Amino acid sequence: MDNSKRTVVVTGFGPFGEHRVNASWVAVQELKKLGLGGEVDLHVSEVPVEYQTVQSLVPTLLKKYHPLLVVHVGVSGMATTVTLEKCGRNHGYKGLDNSSFCPDSQCCIVGGPDCINSVIDMESVCKRVTASGLGVAVSVSKDAGRYLCDFTYYTSLYLSRGRSAFVHVPPLGKPYSGEDLGRALQAIIQKMLELLDQAEEKIHCQQHFH
Fold first, then answer.
1. 175 touches 80 (CB < 8 A)
2. Which one-letter DSSP state was computed for residue 8?
3. Which residue positions are annotated as catalytic (predicted)?
4. pLDDT tens digit string along 11-35?
5. DSSP secondary structure string, 14-50?
6. What is the torsional sign of CA 165, 197, 139, 73?
7. Which of 69, 159, 175, 208, CA to CA, is 20 to 30 A from 185?
8. Using an 8 Å Cβ cutoff, are 70 and 61 in contact?
């Protein structure tokens, strides 16, 4: 393994409900074509809309790839912008998944904190991407919706100690194409990596002076 490369894992969801083609997985496949530049090892994975699969898949991806960052992408029928989610929530999972299951506890991690924030400053990512003139509107949200998206995000934040992000995309053609969404994901993740680099540099500088 080339250790100079940084690894990023990006997931999209499979079909569910009226989303026979899930815009999130289309967007992630477009991102895979574009890549994140030569310095970054990008791995993508499609996630079925099932609580139990998410519970086993997220730790598997973390163990297999040891990523610097995990980015989950999901579709929201209500979204009109590409939306950066700040936090995942532990409680309130009552919606049944594709296998008509929901957790008895209605939570992600029994005894886990109510809410976990990403280590990435989503407002900053939003500002930077907007300033880059991408032609895709980006916004920030504090509520990932208490379904599989939120459940996946919380689980990932918990296991990665906050080194995760979640991006909601609108359905295809409302108004963006799969290519547009892929370009947006590329720009967003590149900005996230820049912010992580700056945070690392800060930590190194502080260690130097003490």
1. yes
2. E
3. 85, 149
4. 999 999 999 999 999 999 999 999 9
5. --BTTBSS-HHHHHHHHHHHH-S-TTEEEEEEEE-S-
6. negative
7. 159
8. yes
CB 40 within 8 A of CB 6: yes
CA 73, 44, 120, 125 torsion-angle sign: negative
146 phi and psi angles, rounded to 5 deg: 50, 40
Bond into 113 cis (ω within 30): no
The total number of residues written for the chain in this structure: 210
Whole-number Å distance between alpha carbons of 132 and 129: 5
pLDDT for 210 equals: 52
Give the pLDDT confidence of 178-196 residue by residue, as tens digits. 999 999 999 999 999 999 9
Q: Is domain 6-209 annotated with CATH 3.40.630.20?
A: yes
Predicted model pTM: 0.95
Structure tokens at 192: 């996230």
